[in-house]
TrEMBL record:
Reaction equation(s) it catalyzes: L-threonyl-[protein] + FAD = FMN-L-threonyl-[protein] + AMP + H(+)
Enzyme Commission code: 2.7.1.180
UniProt binding sites for Mg(2+): G204, D326
Source organism of the structure: Candidatus Protochlamydia amoebophila
Domain of life: Bacteria
Enzyme class name: transferase
Signal sequence extent: none
Cofactor note: Magnesium. Can also use manganese.
Cofactor: Mg(2+); Mn(2+)
GO molecular function: metal ion binding; transferase activity
Assigned keywords, A-Z: FAD, Flavoprotein, Lipoprotein, Magnesium, Metal-binding, Transferase
Gene that this polypeptide is encoded by: apbE
Any Pfam family matching the protein: ApbE
Protein name: FAD:protein FMN transferase
PANTHER family: FAD:PROTEIN FMN TRANSFERASE (PTHR30040:SF2), THIAMINE BIOSYNTHESIS LIPOPROTEIN APBE (PTHR30040)
């Protein structure tokens, strides 16, 4: 009997969803994280085991930024001067992500917005203004299930869950008025919020957004053939040196061997992101019942996703851009 089933659905345009259904009789830590997205290019793994011709050279850039590893493959050989250019683009892009969008950086623009009082107005940077317009579309597309204003909700629940408790109805009621993208205003590049408690968390799209920026900027610099991965999110551009799309596979977490792969995918100028209930979780006893919650929050129910037998354990979503894939993969878990 199969423990999990895989399904593919067409959502909008070229967006595809791969889901993994949890069908274990009991939930244990041993089986919590059976699936993950393997970020390493399968085609690249095959090339390592054979002789590579000059026409199939892949130049690799990798490092760790903001505690998360990135890996960028350029689908052709590059000069030493070009390597410096590419690394400069990579470094400057990640620096921008940190100084504008990172809530953990107290000096970032998003941290300054979170510290504002109700109706206190501040001009937005052009970069954040453009991102907010993209968020507008995602909030509408997801019917409110994607909403960056969940930060107060996350803070409350995580504080309680870390103490083996659940928030009280009064505590939920206190922060409820601060949740909702409609509490945010940024007309003509001027930002204000209706509630002082409202705070933004862009972590749900930061990786995908950064990858999109890297693809765009490296393309503009004259590098059309790219594979960009940061923390499990992937986007490709152009072709592999073997004159075909970039190939990846989705595998059991317990085995990175390609023979155990659940699915093989060719990404043709596309992106893929994965969300799962196994990255962070808490187990508490409530009403004499053992309950397990994960780090994915529903802004409509004001609660984190509860892990149950028969629920979706992981969702991998393919889209034309990584921002969309990143946001909607999490939505699909809800």
């Amino acid at each position: 009997m199969k423990l999990f089933e895989i399904a593919e659905f067409k959502l909008v345009n070229t967006i595809h969803l791969f889901t993994y259904i949890r069908s274990l009789q009991t939930f244990t830590a041993k089986f919590r994280s059976l699936f993950m997205l393997i970020w390493m290019s399968f085609s690249f793994l095959l090339m390592e085991g054979c002789q590579t011709s000059q026409s199939e050279v892949v130049t690799t850039f990798q490092d760790v930024v903001m505690t998360v590893q990135y890996r960028i493959l350029v689908g052709n050989s590059v000069s030493e001067v070009d390597k410096i250019r590419i690394q400069t683009i990579i470094d400057s892009t990640f620096e921008e992500i940190d100084t504008i969008y990172n809530k953990w950086n107290p000096q970032s623009e998003i941290s300054r917005l979170n510290s504002l009082k109700a109706y206190q107005t501040i001009p937005l940077s052009p970069q954040l203004f453009q991102l907010f317009k993209q968020i507008d579309a995602l909030v509408i597309l997801s019917e409110g299930l994607f909403d960056p204003t969940i930060e107060p909700l996350q803070k409350l629940w995580k504080k309680k869950l870390n103490s083996q408790q659940l928030p009280s109805p009064d505590e939920i009621a206190l922060i409820k008025p601060s949740i909702g993208w409609d509490k945010i205003h940024f007309e003509k590049g001027l930002f204000f919020k209706e509630n002082s408690l409202t705070e933004l968390d862009l972590g749900g799209i930061a990786k995908g957004f950064a990858i999109d920026l890297l693809i765009s900027r490296l393309n503009e610099a004259g590098f059309p053939n790219l594979y960009v991965e940061w923390g499990g999110d992937i986007r490709t551009s152009g072709r592999h040196p073997a004159k075909r799309p970039w190939n990846i596979y989705i595998s059991h977490l317990d085995s990175t061997d390609p023979k155990d792969a659940i699915a093989f995918l060719s990404l043709n100028n596309q992106a893929i992101a994965t969300s799962g209930d196994y990255f962070q979780y808490w187990t508490v006893i409530s009403n004499n019942e053992l309950q397990t919650y994960c780090h994915i929050f529903n802004p409509l129910t004001l609660s984190p996703l509860k892990i149950r037998t028969g629920s979706i354990a992981s969702a991998s979503l393919v889209a034309n851009d990584c921002l969309t894939a990143d946001a909607l993969a999490k939505v699909m878990m809800l």
